[in-house]
Amino acid sequence: MTPLDLAVLCDPVTRCPLEQRAQSLFSGPSIYRIEEGIPIFAPAPDRLNLKYQRMYDRIAPLYDFAEHAYKRIVKRDIRAFLSDAFELRPRMRILEVSIGTGANLRLLPSDAEIHGLDLSMGMLRACRRNLRRQHREAILYQGEAERLPFRDNTFDLVFHVGGINFFNDRRSALQEMLRVARPSTRIVVSDETEKVVAGAYQRIPFVNRYFRKRTAPVTSPAELLPPETADVQCTLVNRDKLYCLTFRK
Ligand SMILES: C[S@@+](CC[C@H](N)C(=O)[O-])C[C@H]1O[C@@H](n2cnc3c(N)ncnc32)[C@H](O)[C@@H]1O
Question: According to the model, what pLDDT value does residue 1 have?
Answer without folding.
Answer: 63
